[in-house]
Amino acid sequence: MIALDQVTKTYPGDVKALKGISLQIKKGEFVFVVGQSGSGKTTLFKLLLKEMEPTSGTIYINNKNLGRLRRRRVPKLRRGIGVVFQDFRLLKDRNVYENIAFAQQVVGAPNRLIKKNVMAMLKLVGLPDKAKSYPNELSGGEQQRVALARALVNNPPLLLADEPTGNLDPKNSWEIMKLLEAINMRGTTVVVVTHNKEIVEKMQKRVITMSEGVIISDERKGGYIYE
Ligand SMILES: Nc1ncnc2c1ncn2[C@@H]1O[C@H](COP(=O)(O)OP(=O)(O)OP(=O)(O)O)[C@@H](O)[C@H]1O
């Protein structure tokens, strides 16, 4: 599903964020990416979304070489990747229903189908009664659930989560992780960047550890090793 071959990224000012990353993530995997601040995790996500180009090396998603992907094909690539962030990024002036429906309207789904899909997603994330609430009426954990519902409503085969529990307390963090695990069980490949040591150790999933732009370990059922 994802393959990187000797990928480097140097930012202006000669900042070497990635210094030669090679890795493979298969369809259906659940993977944590951990590492100190500045080790290149967010850079990796931006490359996968083709928000920028690597300085060298090749990235494949579903056997497609992103470097060869035409600009007009990029929206389709991004529709196949659900993304959630630490700060939720919900539209504050839209209610929960509208926040999730928006992703479906963009792909031109008919209204009846949108309604069905949005309600199914709200059920999946455990918020079937919150369709009419606005983001500021929800707790952080609930907002992250809505963000997850939005990320998944178009049924992407891949979900990238960048510090999804960074703003949550331990209880909500754990619930979000369990939800990510359930989503993974339904077949979605899940890649989670996190600093949450306790969760990584508890979940016993594959752990890729980055340090200063390189992968320093890749454990099948790993714990949290850096520090
Ligand atoms: N647009 C940019 N221009 C220059 N340097 C950048 C840019 N974006 C990131 N960097 C640098 O690249 C390195 C990797 O950054 P990146 O954001 O990928 O790290 P990270 O592992 O995601 O960190 P964190 O855990 O704090 O989010 C850092 O040294 C950072 O300062």
TrEMBL record:
Keywords: ATP-binding, Cell cycle, Cell division, Cell membrane, Membrane, Nucleotide-binding
Subcellular location: Cell membrane
GO CC annotation, single: plasma membrane
Example of a GO biological process term: cell division
One of the record's GO molecular function terms: transmembrane transporter activity
Domain of life: Bacteria
Main subcellular location of this protein, as a coarse class: membrane
PROSITE patterns, sorted: ABC_TRANSPORTER_1, ABC_TRANSPORTER_2
Annotated ABC transporter domain residues: 2-225
Membrane topology according to the record: Peripheral membrane protein
Subunit organization: Homodimer. Forms a membrane-associated complex with FtsX.
Protein's job: Part of the ABC transporter FtsEX involved in cellular division.
Family per similarity comment: Belongs to the ABC transporter superfamily.
Official protein name in the record: Cell division ATP-binding protein FtsE
